[in-house]
JmjC domain-containing protein
Amino acid sequence: MDDDGAVPIVDAADLSYEAFCAQFMARNRPVIITNVGADWPARVEWCDRSGLRLETLSARYGHALAPVVGKSTKYGDESRDDVAVATYLDWLASGQAEADQLYLKDWHFTRDFPKDRIYTTPKYFADDWLNWWWDEKAAALSATSVGLDDYRFVYLGPRGSFTPLHHDVFQSYSWSINMTGQKEWLLFPPSETPKLLDKFGRVVLSNFQEIDPVQFPRAHTAKHLRVLQPPGAALFVPSGWYHQVTNTATTLSINHNWFNAYNLPLIWAYFQEQLVAVEREIEHCRDGFDSDSDWILHCQLLLRANIGMDFNELCALLEARAAISTAPFDVAQIYQVLGPLRVHPAINSSK
């Protein structure tokens, strides 16, 4: 973010990886990187100057199933159905997708088609521990990544389709590149999050463009950045930045969620925050558990159900990264650094 409050725009030819790390990842600031992915198959083969090559997409991937959501007012509350890609492309061509605000999103394309290299992760975002972890798990099973999870997605939506205000999974980073079309982003620094809460300080606003001043009395004062993202421009969304995204034209984009050493403290803090919330929610049941170990295990199960991962898996991920690091990497030192945030009981007892 520049001194004038705008998101910096930098040509990929002028931005080294080291500069990206120092200026944006380390400072948790957004940036638009232009001239990215011009030679990707997803850009060259799937799109032309007029937009999407619908027939090409339908012929190659029409048999695949992808999640399609209807118009929603709150993040996570969308109606979601798995639909054949060919069917969705027909809706897009006929105008039904725009009329009904039907949005194909969170399509695990790389997971479903691991041999189809439709893009290459830009160097700025390649130090991705989260998706590396899922790839390692797939390799350990001597299988492709089909059927396992990942955080690599294709999005395809008509003009007007949007994603309500939210922060990314685990408070992770995200990056997004449009193959065709344009997105409007509203980005809110973490310092503005309290203003997005309702009058009770509990619920986050869903649509910044439709504010109920009684329910969200401070929302209109929240400072934010507006970004128009054209094709071939990568947007880096930092950890913990709430954002709302609208497609201003029919848009196909590639998106990843990810984290690494730069935002690990924020990831860890988020896990701790969510664990505390779980513990408070079921505190009245604690005496019903046979031991503290049973209590901890149950809390971890609920944590995984709520956010998609628990501390056991997060620590396994960190230890696996430590094992391949070329630099001195002491997992115990990580716990010491992150410990002041709040030491998890299971970790504390084993270290």
Q: What stands out?
A: The CA atoms of residues 159 and 218 lie 29 Å apart.
